[in-house]
């Protein structure tokens, strides 16, 4: 499986999988997938539903996957446990949601000041990331695959402008993952709230700020009506979702259907990435015209420097606690140093000279 993932291109694997499926016996395999997302959480939910559709089409109907949203199973942040325990065969979520259960899973979504989406995809498939991810998830009896990236996420919606570090102290904010640890170190009262409860929590003044994703997904949530200060990103430069599969269930599938699933996940993940990019471009154009009250801000340099300092300190602390986590973080850092030189030469210098 690992050799197939890393060595063959998507098109080659797709053709092989389809050919194998057409020649196989017509037994139908039915799986259930739980997602963190609600029915309207586009494009996150689309990655899961598109994967199920592709798998059924490529298998000539031999593989049917039922996708249950959080509206049905009522456990949006419990996906890992449900897949691990066999309640569901598959899941679609974000790896950093269960940092409290297994800190080693944290980096496979995104790390502050870390890899961009193209860099992270390259790390996954050509820099050893897939092997490290399977190493981490194997102890749970679960396989994990990239499930779609949102790219750089915005830094969040705030009721009041952040001018100094003192403005962060005591601030109540929804922000998950490692970024939450950084904010907590700077005095923020951090909480993690399921997607479907974000607006209500902000509206009821339970929190003062929150981060969600970016224009594509934020525009329909209405956060700007309450918290008009919209900060640029730093904390999630490549937020990758995850497909989780119960390993025992996966191993019981015929080999050709295993490859069908791998291809369907990879294709739907990339489709989500480009879909979200397009949605964000259109949404931001609309927001600029129709929501003049939104104030775009970048965190002041002293605040950003404090975030970077806290990030570096916490990475060392976590690495000392978990050798496996340190291995993953070191791998990402080494790959970023190599890839970032090309990112600068290509994307950065091009944009710098053409904006």
UniProtKB/TrEMBL annotation:
One of its GO terms (cellular component) is tripartite ATP-independent periplasmic transporter complex. It comes from the Bacteria. One of its GO terms (biological process) is transmembrane transport. Keywords: Metal-binding, Signal. InterPro entries: DctP_fam (IPR018389), SBP_TakP-like (IPR026289), TRAP_DctP_sf (IPR038404). It holds the Pfam family DctP. Na(+) binds at residue 212. Substrate binds at residues 153, 174, 211, 236. Residues 1-24 form the signal peptide. One of its GO terms (molecular function) is metal ion binding. This is ABC transporter substrate-binding protein. It comes from Poseidonibacter ostreae.
